[in-house]
Design goal:
Layout (H helix, E strand, L loop, with lengths): L15 H11 L5 H14 L16 H14 L28 H13 L4 H43 L6 H19 L3 H16 L3 H11 L22 H11 L3
Helix pairs in contact: 5-8, 6-8
Length: 257
């Protein structure tokens, strides 16, 4: 029996190509009635947006679920890495301070976390930028706090020295500090550059942190400074003139030995 479309005529089907297209579209409708009802339902769906399922729980096949999710992500331009090798183009230095070192173990652990939790590459890159910026801010804040704490402690130590009966004034403390410098630099034979390194370390560890230790250093070593000698050591490792031995009587007298 011929298909019902064989005897169906319409002015829009005069062109052979249109007739072929019509017959092909209608071939699954066994009767003209079926075609009318099918057209009705198609019209109802026309213009209605496609709705994603509210849940993937009904998709029992994990492969189908995975493919569906992958296609939806692809539709929205979301790219996921299947291995850490796929994340080789991540900029792990994004937003990082110049002096912040890169830790390969931490970088690889983060990439594996991204892969395991199916985090998109775009979100992974944003996370790196955010974390590096926060770390940079924290490093700067800590450095500022450490410097402020250092200055506060140095001020407290200096005030304690000034208030002690052995000194009694800032001028006296400064005088003993200069004598301490001369005693170390000239009697040990340090150059000005060498004393700069030694003096900075001594200031950071003794003279600006503990007022008792600072007072002991100033009282014991300052009298060893030679009167009228040079302010710069020989740089040869040999004591500058006059030597400690020559200065010992003056030191004994100054310290009531």
């Amino acid at each position: 029996m011929d298909h019902w479309t064989e005897g169906f005529e319409d002015d829009s089907l005069v062109v052979p190509e249109d007739r072929i297209a019509f017959n092909t579209a209608m071939k699954d409708y066994k009767t003209e009635h079926d075609a009318i009802i099918g057209g009705y339902h198609a019209k109802k769906l026309t213009g209605k947006p496609f709705k994603l399922p509210e849940s993937l729980d009904k998709m029992k096949d994990e492969t189908v679920k995975s493919e569906f999710t992958s296609q939806v992500h692809k539709l929205f331009g979301i790219e996921h890495a299947k291995s850490i090798e796929d994340l080789a183009d991540l900029d792990v230095r994004m937003g990082a301070a110049e002096n912040l070192p890169t830790n390969d173990d931490l970088t690889n652990a983060f990439k594996q976390f991204v892969v395991d939790n199916k985090i998109s590459k775009a979100n992974a890159q944003k996370s790196i930028g955010f974390l590096n910026e926060q770390i940079a801010k924290a490093v700067v804040a800590k450095a500022a706090k450490d410097e402020a704490d250092k200055l506060a402690k140095a001020k407290t130590c200096n005030e304690a020295l000034i208030a002690h009966p052995d000194f009694g004034s800032e001028e006296k403390v400064n005088e003993h500090s200069e004598l301490l410098r001369r005693a170390i630099q000239n009697n040990v034979g340090l150059t000005a550059e060498e004393y700069e390194q030694f003096g900075s370390e001594m200031a950071d560890t003794i003279l600006t942190k503990n007022p008792v230790m600072a007072r002991v250093m100033l009282k014991v070593l300052a009298p060893l400074a030679a009167e009228g000698n040079t302010d710069v050591g020989t740089g040869s490792g040999k004591p500058a003139e006059p030597t400690i031995a020559q200065e010992l009587p003056k030191t004994a007298k100054a310290m009531n030995w």
